[in-house]
Amino acid sequence: MKTQILKCLKRFGTLPFLFIGSGFSIRYLGLENWEGLLRKFAKMANNNQYAYEQYLQKAKVNGYKEGLLPKVAELIEQDFFQVWFNSDDYNISRELYQEEIKKHTSPLKIEIAKYMKDVNPLQEHEEELAALSKIGKRSIGGIITTNYDCFLESIFTDYTCFIGQEELIFSPIQGIAEIYKIHGCCSKPESIVINETDYINFSEKNAYLAAKILTLFLEHPVIFIGYSISDKNIENILKSIVRCLSIDNLEKLRERLIFIEWNNSDQPDDISMYSKSFEGGKSVEMTRIRLRDYSILYHTLLENNAKYNAPMLRRLKEDIYELVLTNKPTGKIRTVGLEDEKLEDVEVVIGVGVLADFGQKGYASITAAELYSDVVFDNGNYDPDHVVNLTLPTLLPRNSNSLPIYKYIAHYCGDIPEKVKDAIKPTYNSLLSNTIKKNRDRNPYRESTFSQLKAQCAAEKVFQLTPCLKPENIDLEELNGFLKEYLTKNPTVLSSSSPIRSDVKRLIKLYDWLKYSRETKELQI
User: Is the dihedral of CA 273, 274, 278, 281 positive or negative?
Assistant: First the structure.
């Protein structure tokens, strides 16, 4: 099977793009499909066991323009609006999302975003996740997705993320090491595309989006994964692309489109051709691959490596693009170690611009893992002003607007950039997920000190349970010592697909807040 897949990829000289749908989140996060998500929120809007069926029937009676489910979402949204603003069950949400309320963001979108943020990867498919975490460097060109969750950003931490259709249309995309979240993201609830009005607006601008995506489709193989082959979203995008091309030019798409389907049958995995017909006698042919174990695909992609690191090439392209666009007076273009196979193991500057600006430019290349490490070990020697002005505005959107930021804010002079201000959590509680807040009071370790917890539990449990402790029971020096010891023994935990990576990051963010928030006027315990 690997040989056959590799043969499909080797037909082209460019890296494939992944087009990822909800099946991906179902597989790795345990989330629902679109209908399942609407069923969940239908009961929250109208608390009876047939709530979803009622909305479904009402949508069919009233009629719909952009498909049945967007209409169902719109009807749920209307009822949920009243429940959310009047029920005590949503007191915490109304407090946490005051800014979203001021922007007139739909309560349904706020709660969907909150629900998605609280989800952690399932502790299964370990081999698949380990292989998936490696393909971002040299094995894929980028990712397009209709998913709202932040799973992809957590795996491909060096990729630049564009949220929503407009951001993609109006941004200078580089076409490599990027994630295009065309239906929005839980980090920006207002961007979520779910109801009928959203889909009408999306369809009106779809020609512009199709033009952007068409270039990628013609230059790269595209691997669809996590979608049904008859998925309405994919059908609409392909329909927009088909309209732009003659029958002759459609031949250029032949065999570039690869559709991965989960094989949940007793039959062996297989590869076949599939043809999808559209109006005007046009059709698109694609390769259909049925797999039971997705690690076969990921390991095959790893055998199809490009020569250079994709995130590094993106930064280089971005700098060259900016230089050409602005046409600023002479400077020197300087690349160091571009062909060095050990590039990732050394500290090196790769960039474009005036030599004097290189020190500051380097701050745009600091990774999230490096910030987490610096907060624990305090050895990065970063200039707080440069981190706040250059690093955080770039990294925060790629990391669900959640990073250890208070060490740098506490020693920063000047007006904090808006993107960084938006990430500030004014209270300790606001750093915790709703699941933790809901369960901590009945947690048997609630009244324990950090010392007691550490003495009674394995390190992995300490990461999970410390957020349940009262902040006054956490000795910061002891916590810092614990974090240093663990990261020293497990140096890749912040950048690998470790099942406790999220827990480790959460505890570092809590440490950062507890240690440095008192030095920042905007914050309070």
Answer: positive
Using DSSP, state whether 270 is helix, strand or coil: strand
Q: Render pLDDT for 459-482 as a digit per residue (tens, 0 to 9).
A: 999 999 999 999 999 999 999 999
CATH class of 2-31+125-302: alpha beta
Environment class of 370 (CB within 10 Å of its CB; exposed 0-12, middle 13-18, buried 19+): middle
pLDDT digits (tens, 9 = 90+) for 24-82: 999 999 999 999 999 999 999 999 999 999 999 999 999 999 999 999 999 999 999 99
Position with higher pLDDT, 311 vs 20: 20
Q: Within the chain, which residue ranges are assigned CATH 3.40.50? A: 2-31+125-302
Q: How far apart are CA 27 and CA 121, in angstroms?
A: 9
- Note the pLDDT tens digit of each residue in 402-428: 999 999 998 888 889 999 999 998 888
* Greater model confidence, 115 or 310: 115
* Lookup: tokens for 161: 């993320």
Query: Which residues does residue 291 pair with via DSSP β-bridges, in sequence order?
Result: 262
Total H helices, total E strands in the chain: 29, 10
**pLDDT level of residue 517 (50, 70, 90 thresholds):** confident
**Dihedral angle, C-alpha 157, 187, 428, 102, nearest 10 °:** 150
In 3D space, the residue among 462, 466, 461 whose CA is nearest the CA of residue 432 turns out to be: 466
Q: Look at the chain and count its residues.
A: 525
333-359 average pLDDT score: 45
For residue 317, the model assigns a pLDDT of 74
pLDDT higher than threshold 50 for residue 355: no
Alpha carbons 376 and 490: distance in angstroms, whole number: 14
The token duo for 420 is 């960084």
Looking up tokens 């810092």 gives: 480
The number of beta carbons lying within 10 Å of the beta carbon of residue 364 is 17
SS3 (DSSP) at 46: coil
| Distance in angstroms (rounded) separating the CA atoms of residues 246 and 354 | 46
Q: What's the rounded Cα separation, in Å, for the pair 55 and 516?
A: 49
Q: Residue 374 is encoded by which pair of tokens?
A: 């610096």
Contact between residue 7 and residue 130 where contact means Cβ atoms under 8 Å apart: no
177: left (phi over 0), alpha (psi -120 to 50) or beta: left
* Contacts of residue 466, Cβ cutoff 8 Å, sequence gap at least 6: 450, 453, 474, 479, 507, 510
Q: How confident is the model at residue 305 (pLDDT cuts 50, 70, 90)?
A: confident
- Contacts of 391 by beta carbon, 8 Å cutoff, 6+ apart: 363, 364, 366, 371, 382
Collect all residues with Cβ–Cβ distance below 8 Å to 333 and sequence separation of at least 6.
320, 323, 352, 353
Are the beta carbons of 471 and 428 closer than 8 angstroms? yes
Question: In this structure, which amino acid lies at residue 352?
Answer: V
Distance between CA atoms of residues 260 and 280, nearest Å: 27
H or E segment to which residue 222 belongs: strand 222-225
pTM above 0.85, yes or no: no
**Beta bridge partners of residue 259, listed in sequence order:** 224, 288
